[in-house]
From TrEMBL:
Belongs to the sigma-70 factor family. ECF subfamily. The keyword Transcription applies. The lineage of its organism: Bacteria, Pseudomonadati, Bacteroidota, Flavobacteriia, Flavobacteriales. Gene3D superfamilies: 1.10.1740.10, Winged helix-like DNA-binding domain superfamily/Winged helix DNA-binding domain. Keywords: Sigma factor, Transcription, Transcription regulation. It comes from Aequorivita echinoideorum. Residues 127-179 form the RNA polymerase sigma factor 70 region 4 type domain. Transmembrane segments: none annotated. Residues 28-92 form the RNA polymerase sigma-70 region domain. The keyword Ribonucleoprotein does not apply. InterPro entries: RNA_pol_sigma-70-like, RNA_pol_sigma-70_dom, RNA_pol_sigma70_r2, RNA_pol_sigma70_r4_t2, RNA_pol_sigma_r2, RNA_pol_sigma_r3/r4-like, WH-like_DNA-bd_sf. This is Sigma-70 family RNA polymerase sigma factor.
Length: 187
């Protein structure tokens, strides 16, 4: 199914209202483009994935500032490019500094009702579910474990992983999407 520009505009407007499904749609729709762009730049899957997660987190935090007369994909790629440049500068300078993110970022992503993935996680046979989870990369396994098996809040996960809250939220969105794909492929 092709996604129309009108649908994208509608999803952006819903994201500006804090609707969880809209954030998920935007993440799913634009992930490959931003990740592919970063893979070409950094040639390291883990680093490209981290930059992509951070780019989405920053974009979702600043979604209200997005001007809809411009391309959302270009905006996302520009954010990811700036993050990658900053990381490269920091790495090349060999100076450790905290990322310019705060704990207050990404409070717009609501977490009110369980998503279909949430329901699936709670309803599945535990042994089968664990086999599916083991197919995820370790950092996705960890965030799924903390959220669903240890029942930690986003803030607690952020503190445990020593990562900004926005990165945790995007990583969990991505982990749930990948887990849902694995489960649907197996059935």
């Amino acid at each position: 199914m092709e996604v129309t520009p009108e649908e994208i505009t509608r999803q952006i407007q819903n994201a500006k209202k804090g609707k969880q499904d809209a954030f998920k749609f935007l993440l799913d729709h634009y992930w490959n483009g931003v990740f592919g762009f970063q893979m070409k730049r950094v040639r390291n899957e883990h680093e490209a994935e981290d930059i992509t997660i951070e780019a989405f987190a920053k974009a979702f935090d600043k979604i209200d500032s997005f001007d809809e007369k411009y391309s959302f994909s270009t905006w996302l790629v520009t954010i990811s490019k700036n993050i990658q440049i900053d990381k490269s500068r920091k790495k090349n300078a060999s100076v450790y500094t905290n990322l310019d993110t705060t704990n207050e970022q990404l409070t717009h992503i609501a977490d009110h009702s369980p998503t279909p993935e949430d329901k699936l996680i709670t309803e599945q046979n535990l042994a089968q579910l664990l086999r599916y989870i083991k197919q995820l990369k370790p950092h996705y396994q960890e965030v799924i474990n903390l959220r669903y098996f240890q029942e930690m809040s986003y803030n607690d996960i952020s503190e445990t992983l020593e990562e900004p809250l926005n990165n945790v939220k995007v990583r969990l969105l991505r982990a749930r999407k990948l887990l849902a794909e694995i489960i649907s492929q197996e059935k």
